[in-house]
Design goal:
Layout (H helix, E strand, L loop, with lengths): L4 H15 L24 H11 L3 H13 L3 H13 L7 H12 L4 H10 L7 H12 L3 H13 L3 H12 L16 H6 L12 H19 L8 H13 L19 H12 L3 H13 L3 H13 L7 H12 L4 H12 L5 H13 L3 H13 L3 H12 L14 H10 L10 H19 L8 H14 L4 H9 L1
Length: 479
C-alpha cells in the first residue's frame, strides 16, 4: 500500500493548478455549508517531540512521540506514525505507520482522518483514501477540503469539487500551526504554484484558504460550472484573497468604495464625532460631502436630524440621506434601505436598496434581507442572503453603522449572548446569520428541509466566533 505523503499532497495540488490556475478566470461559487476542524491537542511529550522534530533531531522526537503515544496522546501517535512512514529517526515501516494512523483516526478528529486519508491513497484505486479525506473535510479540516476538491476535479466531478472548494474558501485565516504542517512537502507544494501568495502566517491551512478564495472569485469572473458571471462578486472574493496575501499586481477595486471621495476629511469628522466635538465633525463632514462621500452625507444628515454641531434641519437631513443612497456607497445604501423598509408602503423600495448593498458585500444588508425573507417564510432567499453574511470574515473595522446609536442598539438587542472580540455591527450581523441558519436547519424553518448536521456546523462556527450558547444548541440537537 502506497503511503508517500509528499507525492500525494503535491499531486492533488497540481491537479488544481493544471485545471484552474493556468486557465484563469475559472472555478466556483457561493458557499452553503462551513465547518471548522477540531485540532488534536498535543500533550507535553508530543510538544517536546515537535520541538526536537523541528530541529531535525528525529531520534529524540521519536522517543517523545513514543512516550506520548503510550500515554494515549493521539497527536503523538500521529507524529510517530509520520516518523515511521518517512523513516525519521527510526527504520521506515509503512505497515506500522498505517496501524498508528488507523488507531489515531478512531478519535474521528479531522487531522487524524486527513493523515489516514493521505496514507491510504493509491495510484490505481483511491476509494479508501478519498473516503477518509472526505470525512476529514466534513469535520472541517481546510487542507482536506482543498484536497478532496482537487481529487474531484481530477475525476471531472465539477459539482462535488465546487462543494468542497466552497468550504475551504470560507474558513478563517489562522496564526496556528497544526500537525498538517509537518507533512513533508505540503507547504512547498503550495509555494510551487504559479500564483504569488505571501502569507502573514505561513501554514497549509492559510494556503488552502487563499487558493480557494481565488477559485471562487474566478468562478464568478468566468461564469464556469453553472455560476453566473458577476464582476462584483468576483472582485469581492479576489479582495479577500488579496487581503490574505495574494499579489496579483492589482489593488482591490471593490464597489464598497463607491461614494468614498474625501476619505481623509470624513475620517477626521468621525474622530471628532467620537469625541462629541460635533461642530468640528460637521465641518469635516461638509468638506467630505463636497467630494461626493456617501457616508459623510449620512453622518451630516444624522447631525442635522439631531442638531449635533449644527442647527436642526429635518428637510436638509432627508435630502442628504437620499443623496447618500444615490452615491453608490454600500453602507449608505444599507442605512437608507433599512429605513425605507420601516416606512409604510416603502418595503419594496427598501429591499431593492438592501439588495444593491448586499451585492456589494455589506454583511448588515445581507443579514437584514435574510431576516426579512425569513419573516415571509421564503426559505430559499433567506438562506441565500444569510449565507452571504454568515460566510463573511470577522473584522475589527468599525463602519458608519457603529456611529449611529439607534442602529447599534437595535441590532445588539437581537444578538444572542455574544462575546465578540470586536462588537461591531458587521460582526454581529455575521454571527447572528450563522445562528439563524443553524436554527433554520435544526428545526426545518421557512420551508427548508431539516438537516441537523448542517445546523451543528453553523452553530460550531457561531461558537468559534463568540456565541456563548453554541454548545447548548448543539447538545439540544443531539437529544
Amino acid at each position: 500500500m502506497k503511503t508517500c505523503f509528499t507525492s500525494v499532497s503535491a499531486a492533488t495540488i497540481r491537479i488544481s493548478r493544471n485545471r484552474v490556475f493556468r486557465g484563469l478566470p475559472v472555478i466556483f461559487a457561493l458557499l452553503m455549508s462551513v465547518v471548522f476542524c477540531t485540532a488534536l491537542t498535543p500533550g507535553d511529550e508530543c510538544k517536546s517531540g515537535l520541538a526536537a522534530f523541528e530541529k531535525k533531531d528525529y531520534e529524540t522526537a521519536v522517543k517523545h512521540f513514543t512516550d506520548g503515544a503510550v500515554e494515549g496522546d493521539q497527536a503523538a501517535r500521529l507524529m510517530l506514525g509520520l516518523c515511521y512512514n518517512e523513516g525519521y529517526g527510526v527504520k521506515k515501516d509503512e505497515e506500522k505507520s498505517l496501524k498508528l494512523f488507523r488507531e489515531s483516526a478512531k478519535s474521528e478528529d479531522g487531522i487524524a482522518l486527513l493523515f489516514l486519508g493521505i496514507a491510504t491513497m493509491d495510484d490505481e484505486d483511491n476509494a479508501e483514501g478519498t473516503e477518509y479525506l472526505k470525512k476529514s473535510a466534513d469535520k472541517g479540516c481546510t487542507v482536506a477540503q482543498f484536497q478532496v476538491a482537487s481529487l474531484y476535479l481530477e475525476k471531472e466531478d465539477e459539482a462535488k469539487a465546487l462543494e468542497y472548494f466552497k468550504k475551504a474558501a470560507a474558513q478563517s485565516m489562522t496564526d496556528a500551526k497544526t500537525l498538517v504542517d509537518y507533512i513533508p512537502g505540503i507547504n512547498e507544494a503550495f509555494k510551487n504554484q504559479d500564483l504569488k501568495i505571501k502569507l502573514k502566517s505561513e501554514n497549509a491551512t492559510n494556503y488552502a484558504i487563499v487558493y480557494s478564495q481565488i477559485m471562487v472569485g474566478s468562478a464568478y469572473k468566468g461564469g464556469l460550472f453553472g455560476v453566473k458571471k458577476d464582476e462584483a462578486k468576483a472582485e469581492e472574493w479576489y479582495a479577500k484573497a488579496r487581503k490574505n496575501g495574494w499579489d496579483d499586481g492589482k489593488k482591490s477595486t471593490s464597489s464598497k468604495n463607491d461614494g468614498m471621495g474625501g476619505a481623509d476629511e470624513y475620517e477626521k469628522g468621525v474622530d471628532a464625532f467620537k469625541k462629541k466635538d460635533y461642530a468640528t465633525a460637521v465641518e469635516h463632514f461638509n468638506k467630505s460631502v463636497d467630494a461626493g462621500n456617501g457616508e459623510a452625507m449620512l453622518m451630516l444628515s444624522y447631525c442635522l436630524s439631531n442638531g449635533f454641531g449644527v442647527k436642526k434641519d429635518e428637510a436638509k437631513s432627508d435630502k442628504l440621506t437620499e443623496a447618500a443612497s444615490k452615491s453608490g456607497n454600500r453602507n449608505a445604501l444599507a442605512v437608507f434601505g433599512a429605513a425605507k423598509c420601516g416606512e409604510e408602503g416603502k418595503k419594496e423600495e427598501g429591499m431593492a436598496l438592501l439588495k444593491e448593498s448586499a451585492g456589494k458585500g455589506c454583511a448588515y444588508a445581507q443579514f437584514m434581507l435574510g431576516t426579512f425573507y425569513s419573516m415571509d417564510d421564503d426559505g430559499e432567499h433567506a438562506v441565500e442572503y444569510l449565507s452571504m453574511a454568515a460566510t463573511q470574515l470577522m473584522t475589527e473595522e468599525e463602519v458608519i453603522f457603529d456611529l449611529i446609536p439607534e442602529m447599534t442598539d437595535a441590532l445588539k438587542k437581537q444578538a444572542l449572548n455574544l462575546k465578540l472580540t470586536s462588537s461591531n455591527i458587521t460582526n454581529i450581523s455575521i454571527v447572528n446569520s450563522q445562528i439563524m441558519l443553524g436554527s433554520a436547519y435544526g428545526k426545518g424553518l421557512w420551508g427548508i428541509e431539516q438537516d441537523k448536521e448542517i445546523a451543528k456546523e453553523w452553530f460550531k462556527i457561531a461558537g468559534r466566533n463568540g456565541w456563548v450558547d453554541a454548545d447548548k444548541a448543539i447538545k439540544a440537537l443531539e437529544e
